[in-house]
Amino acid sequence: MDYDETPARRFTLPSAMHAAAFVCALLNIVLSPWCFGAWEMWWFWPMAALLFAGCLFAGTGTLLETLSRNDDGAPRVGRIPLGPAALVSAIAFIPFLAYAIARSRFPSAPGLPLVTMEAERSLLLFFTPAALALIMALSFTRRRLAAMAWIVFANIAVIAVYAVAGKYAGKVDYVLWVLSPWTYGGRAKAVFFCPNHLSAFMNLGLCLALALVFAPRTAWRVKAFAVAAAVAMAWADFLTLSRGGLASILLGLLVGLPTLAMRGRRLWARLLAPVLLAGAIAGAVFAIWRLPNPLMDRISGHGLYKTVVSTWGTPEWKTRVHDSFWYGFDRGTYIQSALRAWKSNPVWGIGPGQHSNRWQEFNASDPGVRPVDGNPATMKRPRYVNNEQHLYEVHSDWTQLLEEYGLVGLALFAFPMLALFVVLCLAQSRMNEDALQPGGASSPAILRAMPLAALLAFIVMAIHSLGDFSFQMPSITWLFAFMAAAGVLAAAPEE
Fold first, then answer.
1. What pLDDT tens digit does each residue of the chain (495 aa) get?
2. Cβ–Cβ < 8 Å for 345, 110
3. Are the CB atoms for 308 and 321 separated by under 8 Å?
4. What's the CA gap between 421 and 455, in Å, rounded?
């Protein structure tokens, strides 16, 4: 397979438009984590503007290219063909995006403005990934896709090294040049204010690194670089001491082990990869569980863990664990608040981005205080609110989606995500079959690895999002969107 564009192509306006779109997408993915994850609006908006500018360039280039086609109707040169899988993945998200726009125009409580800053941010966290996918579909060639994938992978590796170096240099309380107002007990943060977000970011990089390690017919130099990067990312991930982040990567890799069993033509080759990875996971779990380390200290010191261990096997075990989670665990109070809000409008939800504005109406009790009457007015507010008395996120992306968009929104979002999962499974299968064929290793290693990386990333993030809000961090959302779109496009058949 030849991934070069047509030789000796002269400069054209459409090609310039596509090149500009590529640069916009690349700058967004590479720079957004270094802008504190693009969390604050003064960083978020410029990064979002890059993607919308890229869409404009990509759309203009495609239009000009279509208008200037030869009479024989020759297709666009160099671009990755949009097969049925890519089209299904894209079309499946349109109903939810339309619903999100419509929902933002009809607030569920009197006195709320039609569109608030929080609603705009919520909508853009869905529309900007769609914009990125559109840029990649319209303007990316296989060469551009491979180049961007390598640059993104190297960028994650650099952030991992920066996180490790910052930890051991005693600069762990700094986020870039800013002294963080939250220390998190010396946990690594690197470019994010919250160590849990660094963990989620490293998890995505680990998925790509491991996919490169186990990609068939890959040069040993590439595998060696991927192993070194994986070590740095895993090290940085551990230094975050993120219980949810580390649990999600281990569980996600275990769930994804069957995909590795399909790689290779011989039985021993099919079993080697999953056995090696399963052994590494078992070793990591044993080391964390049995050896002295700060992560295990953090796990064992948690009230929920103590309740589970102290009451295991007793008749009151279920009741004690239930009460410990819902009334003694911070995330339990956050989820309670969100579920009470959802019950006020279960079908349509309270509105995009409205959790931070309306949490006081449905607030949960302080940890350790069990409500007796279920009346929100008699309960105290949750801990860890900001100076404006906002509790920004639920610490569960799926729960927050249900709260703000209702059952309709959850169903409309779950369907395209399920479709994307199926498409990624098919992409991984196709890429594996092509790689095992004679001459099938001519495609870049990074492209052969991308479908598996995207599939593993999907599983890991779906698990992590149950107990954290990683998808509320723009740079993580954009990186995941890039990996998912790249996984679909990398497996697209040649024209």
1. 444 444 445 668 888 999 999 999 999 999 999 999 998 888 999 999 999 999 999 999 989 888 876 544 554 556 777 777 778 878 889 999 999 988 887 766 666 656 677 788 888 999 999 999 999 999 999 999 999 999 999 999 999 999 999 988 888 888 888 887 777 878 888 999 889 999 999 999 999 999 998 887 778 899 899 999 999 999 999 999 898 889 899 888 888 777 766 655 555 566 676 777 777 778 877 777 777 777 777 776 666 767 777 777 787 777 777 767 766 667 777 787 788 888 888 998 888 888 877 766 676 544 444 444 444 444 444 444 444 444 567 888 999 999 999 999 999 999 999 999 999 988 888 876 665 554 455 578 899 899 999 999 999 999 999 988 899 999 999 999 999 999 999 887 665
2. no
3. yes
4. 7
pTM for the model stands at 0.87
CB 95 within 8 A of CB 102: no
3-state secondary structure 326-395: HHHCHHHHHHHHHHHHHHHCCCCCCCCCCHHHHHHHHCCCCCCCCCCCCCHHHCCCCCCCCCCCCCCCCC
| Cβ proximity of 283 and 248 under 8 Å | no
461 to 114, 184, 201, 247: CA distances (angstroms): 31, 22, 10, 11
> How far from each other are the two terminal CA atoms of the chain, in whole angstroms?
11
Contact call for residues 458 and 421 (beta carbons, < 8 A): yes
In total, the chain counts a number of residues equal to: 495
Contact residues for 111 (Cβ-Cβ < 8 A; gap 6+)? none
Question: Chain-centre distance of CA 164, in angstroms?
Answer: 22
Amino acid at position 285, single letter: V
Nearest to 62 by CA among 7, 11, 23, 16: 16
